[in-house]
Amino acid sequence: MILSNSKVEIITRHNKAVYRDGNRLIKVFNERKPGSDVFNEALNDSRVSEAGGRVPRVLEVSQVKDGEWEGSWALALEYIPGQSLAQVMRDNPEKTDEYLEQLVELQLQVLSADAPLLNRQKDKLRRMINSVKTLDPSVRYDLQMRLDGLKGGTKVCHGDFIPSNVIIPDDGSEPYVVDWAHVTAGIPAVDAAQTYLLLKVSNNKDYIEYADTYLKLFSTMSDTPRQVIMNWVPVVAAAELARGRQRREKFLLSQIESVFDYL
Ligand SMILES: Nc1ncnc2c1ncn2[C@@H]1O[C@H](COP(=O)(O)OP(=O)(O)OP(=O)(O)O)[C@@H](O)[C@H]1O
Ligand SMILES: [Mg+2]
Predict the structure, then answer these.
(1) Which of 7, 9, 11, 198 has the most ligand 1 atoms within 8 A of CB, as the residue to mutate?
(2) How far is CA 136 from CA 113, 236, 254, in A?
(3) Cβ neighbours of residue 217 under 8 Å, at least 6 residues apart?
(4) Which end of the chain is more exposed for a tag (fewer CB within 10 A), N or C?
(5) 88 lines ligand 1 (CB under 6 A)
(6) Pick the CATH number of 82-257 from 3.90.180.10, 1.10.1740.10, 3.40.50.300, 3.90.1200.10
(7) Is the CB of 165 under 6 A from ligand 1?
């Protein structure tokens, strides 16, 4: 892949950069990112699109040929001109509840599709929790027991369903959902617990304020008791610890420890 000089940076993180380059959205990863993760993200995009999801088209996965990113793996997608829902919500704080309702509606639409070929939510969570050796083994065991109670589940669970991953197109068409790196086939209540937790631990102060309203809305709109969603919060919090984001560690541990009274 060749990146043009007219590319515009959208975000840079510790391990990647995202650019708009003409009508392409390009995610470039640093040298530590295994190629298999990048192919997996592209495969996820394709699977979700084939399951009927409104997802930007995958254009290319390849290594960058020259310049500062030479040799890095990059994923090119169709660029959707528009604004993220996070941006729209920041600009219209008086409409927060309305937009959160739209977020839940969209999430329920995604969750209504089946995609049994995706990676399994249960397997991914089990693997992540097991890798957190700093977590007490008895706690890990308890969390695994909760996961064992999870019956299969083949629904499309995005795994990172937050306002910055929803694009509202400028042309007034239906929203797109982006960033399918974490999608699995699984259970909707687990995906809701994941969104709730991600809002709670976000750097973005607005997100923290959205969390409780989001939970209430998801519960009523999907007719799922809040307790069922909250039951999964310690599980997704433990999996989140596997990502090694130090800053969030204390909060994540508090979400886990609160339910294990022998600690
Ligand atoms: N196809 C696209 N068209 C237009 N804008 C996009 C597209 N894909 C992503 N974006 C914008 O770029 C931002 C970053 O992209 P993306 O969410 O895929 O990466 P990320 O958030 O860094 O991923 P991660 O979840 O690994 O942190 C999104 O929040 C969105 O605003
Ligand atoms: Mg994102």
Answers:
(1) 11
(2) 36, 16, 13
(3) 97, 100, 101, 104
(4) C
(5) no
(6) 3.90.1200.10
(7) yes
Rounded Cα gap, residues 84 and 109, in angstroms: 18
Task: Give yes or no for a contact between 43 and 100, defined as CB atoms under 8 angstroms apart.
Answer: no
Protein residue with least CA distance to atom 1, ligand 1: 79
Please report the atom of ligand 1 found closest to the CA of residue 82.
4
CATH assignment of 8-78, among 3.30.110.10, 3.40.630.30, 3.40.50.12710, 3.30.200.20 = 3.30.200.20
Written as tens digits, the pLDDT of the chain (263 aa) is 999 999 999 999 888 999 999 999 999 999 889 999 999 999 999 999 998 899 999 999 999 998 889 999 999 999 999 999 999 999 999 999 999 999 999 999 999 999 989 999 999 999 999 999 989 999 999 999 999 988 879 999 999 999 999 999 999 999 999 999 999 999 999 999 999 999 999 988 999 999 999 999 999 999 999 999 999 999 999 999 998 877 788 889 988 987 776 55
The ligand that comes nearest to the alpha carbon of residue 16 is 1
Q: Is the CB of 13 under 6 A from ligand 1?
A: yes
**Range(s) for CATH 3.90.1200.10 in the chain?**
82-257
List where CATH 3.30.200.20 sits in the chain: 8-78
User: 11 CB under 6 A from ligand 1?
Assistant: yes
Q: Is 87 in the pocket of ligand 1 (CB under 6 A)?
A: no
DSSP class of residue 114?
B
Closest ligand (CA of 78): 1
User: Does the CB atom of residue 56 touch ligand 1 within 6 A?
Assistant: yes
